[in-house]
Specification:
Length: 422
């Protein structure tokens, strides 16, 4: 079976969708299956995700010209500047941007269809609900290729992107199957998306961890809390800093380490100063390679994700793989990821509840150790390649077969706990 994983473009090292695409492709390749990646727009020469794919032997192709890639990048930079100058006009600017981007992507329909027909793909697996994905779905459908669309978050979230979803849903009927990341997210898709397709769970996964360590120790005598994501309002970094300051007031031997980047990075630093905890806060920048990610996670005792909206965050899976207990908001698919043995769920935006959870783990090393072990075991059961790849292959076989009895792929017998959630 020839599998083509598709996405509009690779956006960079803080994109969870990019990480998911690359991890899927790399793990399928390592398992000995035929997989390639098709993008609408080119990547930059120094893009770390492209290098990971190519170093693993995964072919990467793109449809649009270099000029289109440059124009798209220029337009995105202009849009960000306009957001800063005219913040009240965000909705109008985004709507006009959507129309332009949709027009650009649509011009590549025939090239995309021709490419897919030449590749003799048996199945297309498409992620992210953007104009490029719309074109790829139509091209694949018209070329007679079975298409899977995977929703990597909550439909119509963030709210600013609702217009993209309204347009994107017009092509969902062309997909043979729609997948979501967890049982709760399947229910959400069933409620919010206008689909009659088959609906199933296909989780994210993390690369195998070879040097992960179980939480419970205190490096340099401190309990280290960590956060790794886009430093944007919906990820809750300001709430995290408030909760950390309250934790520090109660239990002074703590540090907060943040990895990522985004529009609120400077605000987070300023808040740390105003709350008197700047000397206990470390900004670690952006990690771009799996070894850097593991090194960051290795330094932590507890991982914290106080988001206001989520699917199933990659960083939580990475922390679980490294044996770290989790504190996270009870939003999206996170309650499917974490049970009471592996972490603590708190209401989104509630700094007091978040601080209470952080304090409870800061002062109890044995609880951290127990939760870290449980989190790592839950990772192996739900998000490891050994758990997810067989489920992917089972899904691919079913979708490619259509109305015919599926032809099994070697090793595709799945016993994943979520395999029957449809």
């Amino acid at each position: 079976m020839r599998i083509v994983l598709c996405k509009g473009q690779i956006l960079g090292p803080i994109s969870g969708a990019d990480e998911t695409l690359v991890t899927y492709a790399v793990q399928l390749q390592k398992a000995g299956h035929s997989v390639s990646v098709l993008l609408m727009y080119r990547t930059t020469k120094d893009d770390p995700y492209s290098h990971r794919l190519l170093n693993t032997g995964v072919p990467v192709s793109w449809i649009a010209s270099k000029l289109a890639h440059t124009s798209l990048g220029t337009g995105r930079k202009l849009g960000r500047k306009l957001f800063g100058i005219f913040p009240s006009s965000k909705k109008l600017i985004r709507e006009r941007t959507r129309r332009v981007v949709t027009g650009m992507a649509s011009r590549n329909y025939q090239q995309c269809r021709d490419y897919l027909e030449q590749q003799h793909a048996d199945l297309m697996h498409i992620i992210t609900p953007d104009p490029s994905a719309m074109v790829m779905i139509r091209a694949g459908y018209d070329a007679g290729i079975p298409v899977i669309y995977q929703e990597l978050g909550l439909p119509y979230h963030p709210p600013d992107f609702a217009s993209y979803y309204r347009e994107f849903t017009s092509v969902l009927s062309l997909c043979r199957e729609v997948t979501a990341l967890s049982p709760k997210l399947v229910d959400y898709c069933r409620e919010k998306l206008p689909i009659s397709n088959s609906l199933s769970v296909l989780p994210i996964m993390s690369d195998e961890i070879t040097n992960g360590s179980t939480a419970g120790h205190q490096p340099n005598g401190h309990v280290n809390f960590g956060f790794a994501a886009r430093i944007e309002e919906l990820k809750g970094p300001m709430v995290l800093m408030e909760a950390f300051a309250a934790t520090h007031d109660y239990f002074s031997n703590v540090r907060l380490k943040i990895a990522g980047d985004g529009s609120q990075r400077q605000k987070v630093t300023a808040l740390a100063r105003s709350l008197g905890v700047a000397d206990h806060y470390d900004y670690n920048g952006i990690y771009t390679r799996p070894d850097q990610r593991t090194a960051f996670m290795h330094e932590l005792d507890v991982f914290v994700m106080p988001s206001f909206t989520e699917g199933t965050p990659n960083s939580i899976v990475e922390a679980m793989a490294n044996g770290k207990p989790i504190i996270a908001s009870a939003v999206g698919g996170i309650p499917d990821m974490i049970d009471p043995e592996s972490g603590i769920l708190v209401p989104p935006g509630d700094a007091r509840a978040l601080a209470k959870a952080m304090i409870s783990l800061a002062e109890n090393p044995e609880l951290r150790l127990q939760m870290g072990r449980a989190a790592q075991e839950r990772y192996r059961t739900l998000f490891s390649p050994a758990a997810v790849v067989p489920l992917m292959l089972e899904t691919y076989s079913r979708v490619a077969a259509g109305d015919k009895p599926p032809q099994p792929i070697d090793g595709n017998k799945s016993c994943h706990p979520w395999s029957t959630c449809r």
